[in-house]
């Protein structure tokens, strides 16, 4: 039986049952497990199903599989319980960063607004023992601004550098995994080097915030709440690890659905929680205002980069983006015309089949796009499989429609207008074009395919 995302004729991977998909783990020693069992014994282990894995062609090692499965609710409770014990050497500051696309899930589940869901979720997490709860929107601001800047540079250099254009978005970890481990050097030079919002948030929390709090990075346990399982793999990347402190920028990723499981186990309704505003990276300031970027179901890279490029390159103000649907609703394009000529051509390619079609065009030298916003999930980030599925693993279309409605109601803010971001560029990153900007906000991609003999398991 083929993996549902795979269209290769030679694919003969067989789907395994749930037990076979789990790698046996010894997450805790026996004493810890007995002591903490009442906290999480009914919580499901983190797992990635075949249908969740975009890059199913020999792309994950057994070591990575073990470390992915370790990122679950048990790990959160393990740290929280260590904080209750007398041995302060094992205490950690627990910080949770919540992706904007996770909040509509809780809003739809409990029939509240996104703003109310954010405050209730923050109250719930603080009640568990979490010290700080952040909104990752500021990290997305940085990611978008760096992507905009890189696109303009690539556009100017397209005649000198073969792989400058098209530029592919870098925010989706499922897409990056597939590009690195299956497509390799055909595609990776085209991918924007700006880190995803998740990993920029890791740099902010383990870098800037740790310094503000006089903490070493390894004394902070940093959790991301995200819509999809692929974020767990992203957190493991070697370039997001600080060897000096033996610390990852992101220690654990929990999907929205995994957080909801904790609520279910504790028989808690979000509506019962006290309203608590998100914490700020800047001391005692609270984040009362919830905003989003100008993206319909994601962080809006296409919209922001298109408008920025139109202004910077062609001195044209674009007020509203007009999408043209191509083969399906998850493959659309946007163009800018000037003096009867198409000067910018952008596309949104969501879902594996649209990605394959786009890559096929690139192979044939027929990819006419300047920028492509690539997302692994059909429907975008709101449709991440960590939050938009029924219990039997099927897409929950009714829930997705609710999420889209409540997300659309959140006010939009341009990244350029965030004064905190401008302040951080100067105080934390030492200027807009500094070496520290490259170290903290950008990454590199592997150009070598993983071959079968490198791997211990195949999915």
From TrEMBL:
Organism: Salvator merianae
Residue ranges of every copy of the Iron hydrogenase small subunit domain listed in the record: 393-449
Superkingdom classification of source: Eukaryota
GO CC annotation, single: nucleoplasm
InterPro entries according to UniProt: Cytosolic_Fe-S_CAF, Fe_hydrogenase, Fe_hydrogenase_lsu_C, Fe_hydrogenase_ssu
GO MF annotation list: lamin binding
SUPFAM superfamilies assigned: Fe-only hydrogenase (SSF53920)
Family in the record: Belongs to the NARF family.
Protein name: Nuclear prelamin A recognition factor
């Amino acid at each position: 039986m083929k993996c549902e995302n795979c269209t290769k004729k030679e694919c003969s991977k067989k789907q395994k049952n749930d037990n076979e998909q789990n790698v046996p783990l010894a997450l805790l020693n026996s004493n810890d497990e007995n002591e903490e069992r009442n906290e999480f014994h009914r919580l499901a282990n983190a797992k990635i199903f075949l249908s969740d894995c975009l890059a199913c062609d020999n792309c994950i090692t057994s070591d990575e599989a073990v470390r992915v499965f370790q990122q679950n609710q048990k790990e959160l409770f393990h740290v929280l319980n260590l904080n209750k014990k007398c041995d302060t050497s094992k205490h950690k500051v627990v910080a949770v960063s919540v992706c904007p696309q996770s909040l509509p899930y809780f809003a739809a589940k409990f029939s509240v607004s996104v703003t109310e869901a954010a405050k209730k979720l923050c109250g719930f997490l603080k009640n568990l023992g979490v010290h700080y709860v952040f909104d990752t929107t500021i990290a997305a601001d940085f990611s978008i601004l760096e992507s905009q800047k890189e696109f303009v540079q690539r556009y100017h250099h397209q005649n000198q550098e073969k792989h400058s254009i098209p530029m592919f978005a870098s925010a989706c970890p499922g897409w990056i995994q597939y590009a690195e481990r299956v497509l390799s050097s055909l595609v990776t030079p085209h991918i924007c080097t700006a880190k995803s919002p998740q990993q920029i948030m890791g740099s902010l929390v383990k870098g800037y915030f740790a310094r503000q709090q006089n903490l070493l990075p390894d004394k902070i346990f940093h959790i991301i709440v995200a819509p999809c399982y692929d974020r767990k793999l992203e957190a493991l990347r070697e370039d997001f690890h600080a060897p000096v402190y033996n610390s990852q920028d992101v220690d654990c990723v929990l999907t929205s659905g995994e957080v909801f499981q904790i609520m279910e186990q504790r028989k808690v309704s979000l509506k019962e929680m006290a309203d608590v505003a998100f914490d700020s990276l800047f001391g005692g300031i609270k984040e009362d205002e919830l905003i989003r970027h100008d993206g319909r179901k994601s962080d809006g890279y296409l919209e922001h980069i298109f408008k920025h490029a139109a202004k910077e390159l062609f001195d044209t103000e674009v007020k509203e983006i007009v999408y043209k649907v191509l083969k399906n609703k998850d493959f659309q394009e946007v163009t800018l015309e000037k003096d009867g000529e198409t000067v910018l051509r952008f596309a949104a390619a969501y879902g594996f089949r649209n990605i394959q079609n786009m890559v096929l065009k690139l192979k044939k030298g027929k990819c006419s796009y300047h920028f492509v916003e690539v997302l692994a999930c059909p429907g975008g980030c709101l449709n991440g499989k960590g939050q938009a599925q029924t219990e039997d693993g099927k897409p929950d279309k009714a829930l997705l429609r609710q999420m889209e409605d409540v997300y659309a109601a959140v006010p939009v803010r341009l990244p350029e207008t965030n004064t905190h971001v401008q302040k951080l560029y100067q105080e934390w990153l030492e200027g807009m074009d500094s070496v520290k900007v490259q170290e903290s906000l950008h990454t590199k991609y592997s150009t070598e395919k993983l071959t079968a003999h490198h791997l211990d398991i195949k999915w």
